[in-house]
Amino acid sequence: MVNQAVKEEYAIDKSSDTQHPIEEVLQHRWSPLAFSERAVEPEKLQSLLEAARWAASSYNEQPWSFIVATQDNPEAFQQLLGCLAEGNQEWAKDAPVLMLSIAKLHFERNGTENRHAFHDVGAAVANLATQATALGLKIHQMAGFDIDQAKEIYGIPAGNEPVEAIALGYLGDPATLSDRLQQREASPRTRKAIAEFVFAGHWGEPSPMVQ
Question: How many domains does the chain contain in total?
Protein backbone atom coordinates (compact mmCIF):
# COMPACT_ATOMS: atom_id res chain seq x y z
CA MET A 1 0.00 0.00 0.00
CA VAL A 2 1.17 3.53 -0.76
CA ASN A 3 2.24 5.38 2.39
CA GLN A 4 -0.64 7.78 2.98
CA ALA A 5 1.43 9.68 5.54
CA VAL A 6 3.47 11.12 2.67
CA LYS A 7 1.33 13.70 0.90
CA GLU A 8 2.17 14.83 -2.60
CA GLU A 9 2.08 18.62 -2.59
CA TYR A 10 1.52 18.68 -6.34
CA ALA A 11 -1.41 16.31 -6.85
CA ILE A 12 -0.92 15.03 -10.39
CA ASP A 13 -3.03 11.93 -10.84
CA LYS A 14 -1.29 9.68 -13.36
CA SER A 15 -2.41 6.40 -11.85
CA SER A 16 -2.63 3.50 -14.27
CA ASP A 17 -5.93 2.94 -16.08
CA THR A 18 -5.66 -0.82 -15.85
CA GLN A 19 -7.55 -3.53 -17.74
CA HIS A 20 -7.51 -5.71 -14.61
CA PRO A 21 -6.98 -4.99 -10.90
CA ILE A 22 -3.40 -4.59 -9.69
CA GLU A 23 -1.85 -3.56 -6.38
CA GLU A 24 -2.22 0.12 -5.55
CA VAL A 25 1.54 0.66 -5.23
CA LEU A 26 2.02 -0.53 -8.82
CA GLN A 27 -0.87 1.55 -10.06
CA HIS A 28 0.66 4.73 -8.63
CA ARG A 29 4.16 4.22 -10.02
CA TRP A 30 4.99 6.70 -12.77
CA SER A 31 8.04 8.64 -13.94
CA PRO A 32 7.85 12.40 -13.37
CA LEU A 33 10.10 15.11 -14.76
CA ALA A 34 9.48 17.61 -11.94
CA PHE A 35 11.18 16.88 -8.63
CA SER A 36 10.98 18.72 -5.32
CA GLU A 37 14.15 20.11 -3.74
CA ARG A 38 13.20 18.22 -0.57
CA ALA A 39 15.99 15.83 0.38
CA VAL A 40 15.34 12.10 0.52
CA GLU A 41 15.74 10.83 4.06
CA PRO A 42 18.76 8.48 4.39
CA GLU A 43 16.64 5.75 5.94
CA LYS A 44 14.28 5.82 2.96
CA LEU A 45 17.16 5.64 0.50
CA GLN A 46 18.49 2.68 2.47
CA SER A 47 15.07 1.01 2.24
CA LEU A 48 15.07 1.39 -1.55
CA LEU A 49 18.48 -0.21 -1.84
CA GLU A 50 17.42 -2.98 0.55
CA ALA A 51 14.45 -3.68 -1.74
CA ALA A 52 16.82 -3.86 -4.71
CA ARG A 53 19.08 -6.18 -2.73
CA TRP A 54 16.31 -8.76 -2.36
CA ALA A 55 15.41 -9.01 -6.05
CA ALA A 56 15.50 -12.42 -7.69
CA SER A 57 18.47 -13.22 -9.94
CA SER A 58 19.85 -16.11 -11.96
CA TYR A 59 21.80 -18.45 -9.63
CA ASN A 60 21.41 -15.72 -7.00
CA GLU A 61 24.37 -13.94 -8.57
CA GLN A 62 22.94 -10.48 -7.76
CA PRO A 63 24.79 -8.90 -10.70
CA TRP A 64 23.82 -5.33 -9.81
CA SER A 65 25.79 -2.39 -8.50
CA PHE A 66 24.64 1.19 -7.95
CA ILE A 67 26.50 4.49 -7.97
CA VAL A 68 24.60 7.07 -5.91
CA ALA A 69 25.02 10.84 -5.79
CA THR A 70 22.95 13.31 -3.76
CA GLN A 71 22.57 17.08 -3.77
CA ASP A 72 24.18 17.06 -0.31
CA ASN A 73 27.50 16.53 -2.13
CA PRO A 74 27.33 19.02 -5.03
CA GLU A 75 30.61 17.91 -6.62
CA ALA A 76 29.59 14.25 -6.74
CA PHE A 77 26.10 15.19 -7.93
CA GLN A 78 27.42 17.35 -10.77
CA GLN A 79 29.79 14.59 -11.79
CA LEU A 80 26.94 12.12 -12.27
CA LEU A 81 24.65 14.77 -13.77
CA GLY A 82 27.35 15.46 -16.37
CA CYS A 83 27.04 11.88 -17.64
CA LEU A 84 23.41 12.44 -18.61
CA ALA A 85 22.24 13.45 -22.05
CA GLU A 86 21.63 17.20 -22.29
CA GLY A 87 17.88 16.72 -22.57
CA ASN A 88 17.84 14.76 -19.31
CA GLN A 89 20.12 17.21 -17.51
CA GLU A 90 17.51 19.92 -18.11
CA TRP A 91 15.13 18.43 -15.56
CA ALA A 92 17.22 15.86 -13.63
CA LYS A 93 19.39 18.66 -12.22
CA ASP A 94 16.59 19.32 -9.70
CA ALA A 95 16.28 15.75 -8.42
CA PRO A 96 17.82 15.29 -4.95
CA VAL A 97 19.30 11.88 -5.86
CA LEU A 98 20.87 10.50 -9.04
CA MET A 99 22.00 6.92 -9.58
CA LEU A 100 23.61 4.67 -12.14
CA SER A 101 22.83 0.96 -12.26
CA ILE A 102 25.57 -1.37 -13.46
CA ALA A 103 25.41 -5.03 -14.53
CA LYS A 104 28.16 -7.60 -13.97
CA LEU A 105 28.24 -9.52 -17.24
CA HIS A 106 29.84 -12.80 -16.14
CA PHE A 107 28.94 -15.30 -13.45
CA GLU A 108 31.18 -15.32 -10.39
CA ARG A 109 30.56 -19.05 -10.06
CA ASN A 110 32.31 -20.06 -13.30
CA GLY A 111 33.22 -16.94 -15.30
CA THR A 112 30.82 -17.66 -18.15
CA GLU A 113 28.63 -14.98 -19.73
CA ASN A 114 25.52 -14.12 -17.75
CA ARG A 115 22.96 -13.38 -20.45
CA HIS A 116 20.41 -12.61 -17.73
CA ALA A 117 22.46 -9.83 -16.10
CA PHE A 118 20.54 -6.89 -17.59
CA HIS A 119 17.24 -8.64 -16.80
CA ASP A 120 18.29 -9.13 -13.18
CA VAL A 121 19.44 -5.52 -12.80
CA GLY A 122 16.04 -4.50 -14.16
CA ALA A 123 14.37 -6.70 -11.56
CA ALA A 124 16.38 -5.00 -8.80
CA VAL A 125 15.41 -1.55 -10.08
CA ALA A 126 11.76 -2.62 -10.33
CA ASN A 127 11.94 -3.55 -6.64
CA LEU A 128 13.53 -0.19 -5.92
CA ALA A 129 10.84 1.66 -7.88
CA THR A 130 8.03 -0.18 -6.11
CA GLN A 131 9.53 0.52 -2.69
CA ALA A 132 9.99 4.17 -3.65
CA THR A 133 6.33 4.47 -4.61
CA ALA A 134 5.26 2.85 -1.33
CA LEU A 135 7.27 5.51 0.54
CA GLY A 136 5.82 8.45 -1.41
CA LEU A 137 8.85 8.87 -3.66
CA LYS A 138 9.17 8.88 -7.45
CA ILE A 139 11.89 7.62 -9.75
CA HIS A 140 12.56 8.30 -13.42
CA GLN A 141 14.75 5.83 -15.28
CA MET A 142 16.86 7.09 -18.19
CA ALA A 143 18.56 5.43 -21.14
CA GLY A 144 20.02 8.79 -22.18
CA PHE A 145 23.50 8.98 -20.66
CA ASP A 146 27.10 8.64 -21.85
CA ILE A 147 28.17 5.07 -21.09
CA ASP A 148 31.85 5.58 -21.92
CA GLN A 149 32.02 8.75 -19.84
CA ALA A 150 30.47 6.94 -16.88
CA LYS A 151 32.96 4.09 -17.21
CA GLU A 152 35.90 6.49 -17.27
CA ILE A 153 34.75 8.79 -14.46
CA TYR A 154 33.88 6.00 -12.06
CA GLY A 155 36.55 3.51 -13.04
CA ILE A 156 33.97 0.85 -13.80
CA PRO A 157 36.00 -2.30 -14.45
CA ALA A 158 35.85 -4.45 -17.57
CA GLY A 159 33.07 -6.99 -17.44
CA ASN A 160 30.69 -4.48 -15.89
CA GLU A 161 28.29 -2.42 -18.00
CA PRO A 162 26.27 0.66 -17.04
CA VAL A 163 22.59 -0.07 -17.62
CA GLU A 164 20.66 3.12 -16.89
CA ALA A 165 20.58 6.38 -14.99
CA ILE A 166 17.94 7.07 -12.35
CA ALA A 167 16.55 10.30 -10.89
CA LEU A 168 14.89 9.95 -7.51
CA GLY A 169 13.00 12.20 -5.14
CA TYR A 170 9.68 13.67 -4.11
CA LEU A 171 7.26 14.95 -6.72
CA GLY A 172 7.88 18.59 -7.66
CA ASP A 173 5.91 21.46 -9.17
CA PRO A 174 5.39 20.99 -12.93
CA ALA A 175 5.30 24.78 -13.28
CA THR A 176 9.08 24.81 -12.78
CA LEU A 177 9.50 22.95 -16.09
CA SER A 178 9.75 24.44 -19.55
CA ASP A 179 6.52 24.57 -21.58
CA ARG A 180 7.71 21.59 -23.62
CA LEU A 181 8.41 19.50 -20.53
CA GLN A 182 5.16 20.56 -18.89
CA GLN A 183 3.33 19.12 -21.89
CA ARG A 184 5.21 15.85 -21.43
CA GLU A 185 4.42 15.83 -17.73
CA ALA A 186 0.71 16.31 -18.37
CA SER A 187 0.44 13.80 -21.22
CA PRO A 188 -1.66 10.68 -20.52
CA ARG A 189 0.06 7.36 -19.87
CA THR A 190 -0.58 4.57 -22.33
CA ARG A 191 0.23 0.87 -22.57
CA LYS A 192 -0.29 -1.86 -25.15
CA ALA A 193 -3.29 -4.10 -24.59
CA ILE A 194 -2.38 -7.42 -22.94
CA ALA A 195 -3.52 -9.31 -26.04
CA GLU A 196 -0.74 -7.60 -28.02
CA PHE A 197 2.02 -9.32 -26.05
CA VAL A 198 0.59 -12.48 -24.48
CA PHE A 199 0.53 -15.36 -26.97
CA ALA A 200 -0.44 -19.03 -27.02
CA GLY A 201 0.17 -21.77 -29.56
CA HIS A 202 2.17 -19.61 -31.98
CA TRP A 203 3.96 -16.29 -32.00
CA GLY A 204 1.52 -13.44 -32.56
CA GLU A 205 -1.58 -15.47 -31.68
CA PRO A 206 -3.19 -13.86 -28.63
CA SER A 207 -3.85 -16.23 -25.76
CA PRO A 208 -7.55 -16.98 -25.25
CA MET A 209 -7.14 -16.06 -21.59
CA VAL A 210 -6.56 -12.39 -22.45
CA GLN A 211 -9.13 -11.90 -25.20
Answer: 1
Q: pTM here?
A: 0.92
Contact (Cβ atoms closer than 8 angstroms) between residue 35 and residue 171: yes
Mean pLDDT, residues 106-118: 97
Residue 18 lies in a domain: no
Q: For 124-181, what is each residue's pLDDT tens digit?
A: 999 999 999 999 999 999 999 999 999 999 999 999 999 999 999 999 999 999 999 9
Residue 90: inside a domain:
yes
* pLDDT at 13 (0 to 100): 74
Average pLDDT over residues 28-52: 97
SS3 174: helix
- Of 168, 172, 131, 140, whose CA–CA distance to 23 is shortest? 131
Instruction: Judge whether 186 lies within some domain.
Output: no
Q: Is the CB of residue 167 less than 8 Å from the CB of residue 139?
A: yes
Domain enclosing residue 85, as ranges? 24-174
> Is 156 in contact with 150 (CB distance < 8 Å)?
yes
CATH code, 107 = 3.40.109.10
Query: Is 3 domain-assigned?
Result: no
Distance, CA of 26 to CA of 24 (rounded, Å): 5
Task: Tell me how far apart the alpha carbons of residues 27 and 17 are, in angstroms, rounded to a whole number.
Answer: 8
d(CA 42, CA 106): 32
Q: What is the per-residue pLDDT for 6? A: 44
Q: Could you tell me which residues come within 8 angstroms of residue 128 by beta carbon, excluding any fewer than 6 positions away?
A: 48, 49, 51, 52, 139, 166
